[in-house]
């Protein structure tokens, strides 16, 4: 799936892409010193979609433990143990890399410049890919901040952002058909929330529909679906049932869209109650039907970065319950989620912070 792009980015009520850590002593091409033990934990869930074969590896973007020591870099990890298998991108003080998806033996990622003043001539974001076995990265799409390949590989979509517009561009690689969906136009040069955050771009199995997370502010985030080659603007987007009944006065945000096999759309809802408690759940929705809950995430901090396959297998990272404490990585294939790794606390490793997970 095209992740939560994964995802990321806020307030306790937003599913923002945040931070996690790596085992000390790991270096490029070397395994982590010891596998983590899987520990079942209590959770409430309904039956998952067909389990299928669990992907053996996933990609994650790790942030340096010390600010100013470079941007995020991408590592490849074991889905069974959470152990670091190899680094896929180098540490850099000039760029930061965010994992987007794992497709056909490649890890797709967004690369952004670090500490560069925006303006004419300034380097912008770009989409790259690197083989899961390692090697030099390849440029895929310049000027894009998110990217998704359709399940059959016949179409691609990407997000572009300028000082005036934010758009999704969809292209059919076989026919050459191209369509642009305008998500936002800047209302005023002084607008403080420009540009809105757009992430989690993902294709449906029919290769004719797209879903995306549109985040206006840290606490205002919705999942939208579009006809990839028929929609023209954000007004053509569809949303699922309201995540929070108005009578509850709760605050809800949606994030992490991903199509499951058969065309059902899944996404994460985080609900912030008036008392400050945060609950997170994974739901599935098809137009014309009510949303159903697939999984209530374990108690404690909600998932900070997350991804799910078309077969309904999920993986996510949860932030620490207190500052500098360890992070955890979870896997779910139906039934009870499994904690597959506990990452070292801040100060125990050169890296502390997961920016995105891609499975």
Observed structural traits:
359 residues; mainly beta; 5-stranded antiparallel β-sheet; 45% strand
How would you concisely characterize the structure shown here?
By secondary structure, this protein is an all-beta fold. It has strands spanning 39-40, 44-45, 57-64, 73-78, 84-87, 95-103, 106-113, 126-131, 138-142, 144-149, 155-161, 165-172, 178-185, 197-203, 209-217, 220-227, 251-259, 265-272, 278-285, 292-296, 303-308, 314-318, 328-332, 338-342, 351-358. A five-stranded antiparallel beta sheet has the order 1-24-23-22-21, with no helix packed on it. Strands 2-20-19-18-17 form a five-stranded antiparallel beta sheet, with no helix packed on it.
Topology:
Elements: E1 39-40, E2 44-45, E3 57-64, E4 73-78, E5 84-87, E6 95-103, E7 106-113, E8 126-131, E9 138-142, E10 144-149, E11 155-161, E12 165-172, E13 178-185, E14 197-203, E15 209-217, E16 220-227, E17 251-259, E18 265-272, E19 278-285, E20 292-296, E21 303-308, E22 314-318, E23 328-332, E24 338-342, E25 351-358
Helix content: under 10%
Neighbour order of strands in the largest sheet: 1-24-23-22-21
Distance between the amino and carboxyl termini: 6 Å
Q: How much is the radius of gyration in Å?
A: 19 Å
How many helical elements? 0
Principal-axis shape equals globular
The biggest sheet amounts to: 5 strands, antiparallel
The computed structural class is mainly beta
The number of strands is 25
Global mean pLDDT: 82
Regions with little confidence, pLDDT below 50 for 5+ residues: 1-51
Listing every helix as H and every strand as E from the N terminus to the C terminus, the arrangement reads: EEEEEEEEEEEEEEEEEEEEEEEEE
SS strand fraction = over 45%
């Amino acid at each position: 799936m095209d992740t939560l792009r994964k995802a990321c980015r806020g307030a306790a009520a937003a599913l923002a892409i945040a931070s996690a850590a790596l085992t000390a002593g790991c270096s490029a091409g070397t395994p982590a010193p010891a596998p983590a033990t899987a520990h079942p934990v209590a959770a409430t869930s309904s039956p998952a979609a067909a389990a299928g074969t669990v992907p053996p590896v996933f990609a994650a973007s790790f942030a340096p433990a010390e600010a100013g020591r470079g941007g995020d870099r991408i590592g490849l990890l074991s889905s069974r143990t959470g152990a670091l298998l190899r680094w896929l991108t180098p540490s850099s003080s000039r760029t930061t890399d965010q994992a987007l998806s794992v497709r056909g033996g490649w890890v797709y990622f967004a690369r952004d410049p670090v500490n560069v003043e925006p303006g004419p001539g300034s380097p912008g974001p770009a989409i790259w890919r690197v083989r899961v076995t390692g090697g030099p990265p390849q440029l895929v799409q310049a000027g894009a901040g998110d990217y998704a390949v359709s399940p059959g590989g016949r179409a691609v979509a990407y997000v572009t952002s300028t000082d005036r517009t934010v758009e999704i561009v969809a292209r059919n690689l076989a026919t050459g058909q191209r369509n642009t969906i305008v998500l936002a136009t800047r209302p005023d040069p002084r607008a403080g929330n420009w540009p809105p955050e757009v992430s989690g771009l993902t294709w449906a199995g029919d290769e004719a529909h797209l879903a995306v997370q549109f985040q206006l502010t840290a606490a205002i985030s919705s999942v939208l679906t579009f006809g990839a080659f028929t929609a023209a603007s954000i007004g053509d987007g569809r949303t699922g049932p309201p995540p929070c009944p108005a009578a509850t006065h709760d605050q809800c945000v949606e994030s992490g869209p991903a199509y499951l096999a058969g065309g059902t759309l899944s996404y994460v809802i985080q609900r912030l109650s008036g008392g400050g408690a945060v609950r997170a759940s994974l739901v599935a929705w098809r137009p014309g039907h009510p949303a159903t809950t697939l999984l209530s995430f374990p108690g404690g901090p909600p998932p900070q970065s997350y991804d799910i396959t078309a077969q309904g297998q999920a993986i996510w990272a949860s932030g620490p319950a207190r500052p500098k404490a360890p992070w955890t990585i979870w896997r779910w294939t139906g039934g009870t989620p499994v904690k597959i790794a506990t990452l070292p606390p801040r100060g125990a490793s050169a890296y502390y912070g997961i920016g995105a997970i891609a499975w």
